[in-house]
């Protein structure tokens, strides 16, 4: 159970949001050029990090906007929230 | 030599107030070098070591466990065992395991309390009915026992189910696998540990693997909290932590780790003598020998290693339980816990070699691997010993995510266990 601070609406219980998986996975620019290995990387392989993970959330029961979250998956603490299109913090 | 457990050893030990039982397994310090190292002392890891020693004649084996054996998902699951999966590959895998369960207590000389009390899978809408009937036929074609019950037969088989047509998700029928059931989770870990130990396997607890040393494409050994240990073959069976170990070896896996919860009620007199599962409303229940209702809840939607899970998930499950079994409405829940399950995109496991020589993974069992424990260990041992898959686990190789030849068991396994 944790609270997420939507960049548009403010703090809400996480049940108002939907999880959108690992962030910053870029859709291949030229899908027709991709090998099977590259498709597997894009579609299936995940970092599945124990620790700080960059991930996407959607405020699905609120403003319905997407945004990025940096959360520690070992304790569910949120360290940073940043907008779609922004780069992950260094 | 291990003393055999029997009625005579029980009587004999009662004279000394059960204070002189032989240790079930030793507690050795790690050697400098092993032929095979198994990472993860859950049921799957211990079974792997047991079959490596017993069927493949390897003697210099260690199982490294970061906590205590069976303290992971093996000791946290709701112990449902069944083999009524849809696809041929899964049917082969899970029924191989079920056949091993049927002789396991004798095989291990350890009572794993395997109870073939039957498992029902309820249908709540037309689509469920069609899917489950299809599965019944598929199972029969694969030689797996499976019956279809209509609503009246459901009520006869398990009278406490609310079969009234005016509930939110009425019961429209059910599959029944009579050979399916439950087993005692701890006993499975302890039985395999005792068996493996008797063949000379070193079971090393409180020993976390912190690094995997490679030279080029070969394995050289593992770094642990008890120092470096040399080996050329490492089999990783770390459930929710599989990706963490893959990361140490520099490879990627298609897994996501999520909390899955279960809870038990206060103990009551026998009320339900089978296992009832329902994918659609996501509630399943059985009764332990102590009398507690064992209730399985769902996974959280996001990756987490917190081993607890959120309250809403339990609330959703209990709502469904109360509608299906109004008789439970005044029961108190005693305990709740979570385990971290490693979920594959196709809800099927990986029992496979990897691109690194001597590195093997057995993972992706997600929410439903307890039932497979003996079969998984048996086939993983084969894969490690022969450096090639057995025909029963060939389809469960890691390359299926590249070839696209997935074993899509979401319908049969993703929610249920
Ligand atoms: C709540 C819940 C209910 C479930 N219900 C069912 C069910 O009804 N039926 C069913 O078939 N399945 C069920 N499952 C799934 C089942 O529990 C698992 O698939 C199965 O037990 C996995 O066994 P394992 O031996 O692979 O994993 P585990 O028992 O988790 O063993 C893995 C071990 O690896 C160790 N480890 C991890 N990292 C390291 C490291 N770096 N170094 C050393 N050791 C390490 C861990 O400490 C752990 O002991 C359920 C799971 C949960 C959580
Ligand atoms: Zn919002």
Task: Set out the fold topology.
The complex is a heterodimer of chains A (90) and B (417).
Chain A: E1 3-6, E2 10-13, E3 18-22, H1 36-43, E4 52-58, E5 66-72, E6 77-83
Antiparallel strand pairs in A: 1-2, 3-4, 4-5, 5-6
Chain B: H1 7-14, E1 36-39, H2 43-55, E2 61-64, E3 80-81, H3 88-102, H4 104-108, E4 119-123, H5 126-141, E5 147-149, H6 151-157, E6 173-177, E7 181-182, H7 185-198, E8 202-204, E9 209-215, E10 218-224, E11 227-230, E12 234-236, H8 242-249, E13 256-265, E14 275-278, E15 283-287, E16 293-299, H9 311-324, E17 333-343, E18 350-353, E19 359-363, H10 373-386, H11 400-403, H12 410-414
The structure holds flavin-adenine dinucleotide and zinc ion (ZN).
Flavin-adenine dinucleotide binds at residues 39-45, 64-67, 71-74, 76-80, 208-209, 237-239, 241, 245, 260-262, 296, 339, 341, 365, 367-371, 417 of chain B.
Can you summarize this structure?
The complex is a heterodimer of chains A (90) and B (417). Chain A is mainly β and 90 residues long.
